[in-house]
Design goal:
Blueprint: E1 5-9, H1 13-22, E2 27-31, E3 48-51, H2 59-62, E4 70-73, H3 83-88, E5 92-94, H4 101-116, H5 119-127, E6 145-149, H6 153-164, E7 168-172, H7 178-184, E8 187-188, H8 191-197, E9 200-203, H9 217-221, E10 227-231, H10 240-249, E11 252-257, H11 269-274, H12 283-292, E12 298-300, H13 309-328, E13 334-336
Parallel strand pairs: 1-2, 1-3, 3-4, 4-5, 6-7, 6-9, 7-8, 9-10, 10-11, 11-12
Antiparallel strand pairs: 5-13
Helix pairs in contact: 4-6
Amino acid sequence: MNMKKVVFFETKPWEVDYVNGSLKDFEVEFCEEKLTAENVEKYADAEVISSFIGSTFTSEVLSKLKSLKMIATRSTGYDHIDLDYCKNSNILVSNVPSYGENTVAEHAMALLLSLSRRIPESIDRVRANSFIPEGLTGRDLKGKVMGVLGTGHIGKNMIAYSLAFGMKVLAYDLYPDEKFASEAGFSYAELDYLFAKADVISLHLPYTKETHHVINKEAISKMKKDVVIINTARGGLIETDALFDGLSSGKVGGAGLDVLEEEKFLSEEVVLLHMDNHGEVNFKVALENHMMAHLPNVIITPHNAFNSKEALERIITTTIDNVKCYFGGSCKNLVAHQ
């Protein structure tokens, strides 16, 4: 009897051992690479595919996966997957909805603390054999207004951490949790009011058509001078050109970014040279990312906010459970279904 085939992309050695011990009744294949249009035909017989966000599930790729019935993305976000195609082709899509609620919020706070106390500059100075603190004056968080966009699992943790530092919190969400707000001690506000009052704005929204470039030139024009912007959610929430202009003009005092538009070209410039369709690349955005990475009031990390030992274990455990439930006929954590 043919066993059901499951393929895991973008895997690390520890994940292989973990999965093999949990999916013994299936034919499981592992690939360290991402799923791409170039390698997809090798996996046309896969019934289930699991990947992280580096793999591309465009209509072109999906059309070649003739046996595919389910995608189990090892992420909360799923904007790397063509959901319309999946729905029309009866391909189920599951995600990991809440693996990093504290992990990502901790990283966001780490970015803010590093900016407010000028940690990278301080480290560079000591490594240059200087132990003089002049010119490294930072700012307190206590008493400042934190604006949190999105109050899901991660946003709620960010609110808790901000309140613990003595910050005042304003939050925005299409579906405000007033009970949580009352218990925690913060208030919801309309976007324009939040933009006008916040000293720090931290993004924890999902990426959708409605949230695309929620931080744009108009939004930044409404913000306080020296506002600090933190983004550990999705690059497309911020209009890169607007942020770069804000930083250049001094309107934006600092930015802590774990995600960027066109972020893959920060480390894979050679990809640009070999792309057949350069119209798919916004070269201005790619260049502005490079320039921002060298500004003293900007900290960019390589999409690493999720990356703690505990969170990674939660990701793979939930993914395995999603796959098992699919084969058992009771699907979980679906974001696209028949």
